[in-house]
Design goal:
The protein has helices at about 5-15, 25-35, 45, 55-75, 80-90, 100-110, 115-130, 135-145, 160-175, and strands spanning about 100, 135. By secondary structure, it is mainly α. The chain has a two-stranded antiparallel sheet with strand order 1-2. Helix 2 (about 25-35) crosses helix 5, helix 4 (about 55-75) crosses helix 5 (about 80-90) and helix 5 (about 80-90) packs antiparallel against helix 8. It starts with 6 loop residues before the first helix and ends with a helix.
Length: about 180
């Protein structure tokens, strides 16, 4: 996100002491504020942090690790909400209906570290698909990952976006070649 961060957001990242590791904390803030405008927070959105007892930078620093734990424990669908909340904020502009390939891949790598299938998906998107990611694909990819798919039992006539069908077909072709 560094290429899009400027002004007040840049100062916030600096004051929080995040440096290059600002991607996940910023997405946590997006989730908690329900931010909708790409790469910015409105005053109203930012004031939503008050409901969590955040009134200054120190409070925010204290809450970020708690929010990370909450998001990644997946209780009560927290991770799903966290994941889906990121899409509007990651768009290149408020009018955009898609995420550019680079942003989507980078975000998946942050949100699903160490997940082999997600790493393979990212390689497929970056090297073969090379197109923007729609909101439907973004949301359905979460469901796809959560389903822990068995590629050999995958049914292309299920209601997955075409890009997921293409990914599975590429995986099956690779498996057949082995």
């Amino acid at each position: 996100y560094q290429r899009r961060v400027h002004g007040g957001l840049s100062k916030l990242i600096e004051r929080l002491g995040l440096g290059e590791d600002s991607d996940l904390p910023m997405l946590l803030l997006v989730w908690k504020t329900r931010a909708q405008t790409p790469y910015s927070f409105s005053l109203e959105e930012f004031c939503r942090l008050g409901q969590y007892g955040v009134s200054n930078i120190q409070d925010l620093q204290k809450h970020l690790p708690q929010w990370r734990q909450e998001a990644f424990t997946n209780k009560l669908g927290c991770f799903r909400d966290f994941y889906k909340a990121s899409f509007p904020w990651l768009r290149s502009s408020p009018q955009a209906s898609t995420l550019d390939c680079e942003t989507a891949v980078g975000t998946w790598q942050v949100l699903f570290p160490g997940n082999k299938m997600v790493a393979e998906w990212c390689t497929f998107i970056r090297d073969q698909y090379k197109k923007a990611i729609t909101k439907d694909t973004w949301n359905m990819f979460y469901e796809f990952v959560r389903s822990e798919p068995n590629f050999l039992e995958y049914k292309a006539d299920d209601s997955w976006p075409a890009v997921i069908d293409e990914f599975v077909e590429s995986k099956l072709n690779a498996m057949r070649k082995q």
